[in-house]
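Before relying on records like the one below, remember that each one covers exactly one chain. Contacts with other chains, cofactors or solvent are not represented anywhere in the record.
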Amino acid sequence: MKIRKTMLNEFELNIFIYENKKDEFFVVAIPTIEWSTTYTYDDYGDELLEKLVASLKLIIDEQEAQNLAHRIYQWTREM
């Protein structure tokens, strides 16, 4: 599991990223905002970004959701 830190509205968030290489999926959780999601290695590109943004903007505003979704996407692709 990796833990990444980022800022959101002057608050530092811990983003927990778990990668299951055997079953080829990720679990991403942000306990501070009570948010989590899972997705597979087959999910990628604009479709995945749209899924992340749609889920995040239920909790935070759209611009922040887009920024955070891009960071999550980048972090998981680095793993």
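The helical segments are 45-56, 62-78.
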